[in-house]
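User: tokens in, sequence out, please.
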């Protein structure tokens, strides 16, 4: 799908429909989509391209919260996902993208955040181009606790066992 134009896909679950705009060319985190989808119950599901409306007014979790949840969030149950977008930590329904709860102001609105496995749970790696990188641990019901911070950008990758791999040194600043 690399180099293909942006599209909105309709993921049809038995009795439900969910939409996620997936753009592999513009989103470097696209490779995480399949692992996120595998956490959902997809028995009897089908996927088809649809027309999507990018002009819809944005909510606290953006125009397409389900897209953001699939690409950058964490499936905390079979039917809900947690994400940070535009500086807002929130939960959304993974069947229709409807925001369930939000908490703004926990991270700067200009930072991009991506969910990762962290310890026994999950967290988020947040940063802005050329700026700080911060690793936050998720604290239920809707909180964050910073666990690492670097003055300069760092590549942070989840190891799959709760540990992190950090390019550029592990010493926090």
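Assistant: Sequence out:
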């Amino acid at each position: 799908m690399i180099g293909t134009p942006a599209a909105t896909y309709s993921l049809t679950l038995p009795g439900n429909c969910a939409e996620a705009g997936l753009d592999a060319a513009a989103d470097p985190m696209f490779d995480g989509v399949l692992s996120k989808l595998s956490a959902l119950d997809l028995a009897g599901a089908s996927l088809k391209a649809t027309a999507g409306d990018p002009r819809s007014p944005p909510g606290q979790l953006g125009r397409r919260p389900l897209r953001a949840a699939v690409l950058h969030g964490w499936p905390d149950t079979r039917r809900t996902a947690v994400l940070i977008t535009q500086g807002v930590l929130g939960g959304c329904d993974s069947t229709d993208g409807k925001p369930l709860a939000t908490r703004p102001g926990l991270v700067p609105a200009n930072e991009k955040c991506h969910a990762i496995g962290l310890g026994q749970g999950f967290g988020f790696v947040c940063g802005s181009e050329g700026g700080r990188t911060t690793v936050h641990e998720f604290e239920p019901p809707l909180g964050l606790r910073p666990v690492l911070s670097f003055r300069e950008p760092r590549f942070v990758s989840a190891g799959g066992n709760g540990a992190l791999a950090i390019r550029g040194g592990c010493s926090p600043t």
